[in-house]
Structure formats: structure tokens, C-alpha cells
TrEMBL record:
Residues 74-92 have a biased composition (Acidic residues). PROSITE patterns: 2FE2S_FER_2. The chain crosses the membrane at residues 6-23. InterPro entries: 2Fe-2S_ferredoxin-like_sf, 2Fe-2S_ferredoxin-type, Beta-grasp_dom_sf, Fd_pln. This is 2Fe-2S iron-sulfur cluster-binding protein.
Amino acid sequence: MVDTLGLVFGLGMALTLVVLHFFKGTSKPVPEDIAQEVLEQRASTVPETDFPEPYNRSIGGGGAAGAVAGGAEGELEDSEEEDEGFDPSSIADDEVEYYEIEYVKEGETIEVANNETILDAGEDEGWDLPYACRQGQCLSCGGRVASGEDSHDFVQHSNNETLSDDEMEKGYMLTCTAYPTASFSVETDETP
Ligand code: FES
């Protein structure tokens, strides 16, 4: 009798386990793409950086950062072109032009060639004009368009490592590297 009950009990347990085996875990839906979800969560916690690929750690940010880096590179190329400066030796002898430059403080107007600096031309007249480096690297030779107009319209520099565009727009120039491109009046010994 005991053996029969044990056998029935054992069969019942086995049947229960078989049923549980087939139904266990099948009711919970599985996300279709867990990997993408995890990637997006991680991406939202990683700050954007300006590093171009492959150093950009943000997911999906590489393209934008690359575009920014490309833009900066373009600007750098532009500024490098601007910094090359004017080369007076590139003017052929038969293309030299002369402009009337009035030196206001010296009280005279002289002709200055477009391959001669405002400083050199003044010194040739015997005037004691201020200077130091004579290479566009300081402000000692500073001068200004007397009218206060933009000096870009009257001179071009072979080298300018000192004056900003804003200062030049207020008429300032470095007479040691400034070559005339038009006639104008200059006030020597003027700095921003
Ligand atoms: S003397 Fe230095 S910039 Fe002209």
C-alpha cells in the first residue's frame, strides 16, 4: 500500500516538473534588440568631445565632431593664407607705382613707391622716426591714417604680428612693414 502511494506521489511530482519545465519563463517578452538599447543609454551618459574619430568617445557624435574639426582646419588654412603677407619683391620694376603720402607731423608730402615702406621713405627724408624690430613684431613704429579710416584701404603689410584687424580698421599700421596702395595722410608715432 505504501509503495503504491509513493509511486503515485512520485509520478505526480514528475508530471508537475515536466509541466513547469515547458511553461517556465515563456511569459516575459524579450526586447528585439537589447544591444541597440544599451548603446543608446551609454551614449546619453558620455559627454560630447571635439576629438575627431577615432578618439571621439561619444556614440554617433563622430560625424558632427569631424565636421567641426574640418571647419577649424579650413579656418586655419584661411588664416595661414592671410598671414603670408605681402611680398614687395614680387613687384616688377616696370610695375612700381607711386603714391602721395603726407607725413602730417613732419609737415611734408612725399612720393612713396608701393615697394617701399612708410618708415623707409620717411627715413630717406632724414626724419628720425620711431622703430625697434623693423619686422612687424612690435609696436614701436606704429602710425595711423590721419583721417582714422581703415588702414587696409591704404597700405598692405609684408608682416604684421602685432595689430589686430580691429586696430587696423581704426587706421593703425606698422610703418616698418606697411607699403602704400593709395595716397593718404599718415601720423607717425601713433599706437593703439
Ligand atoms: S619696428 Fe617693430 S613692428 Fe615696426
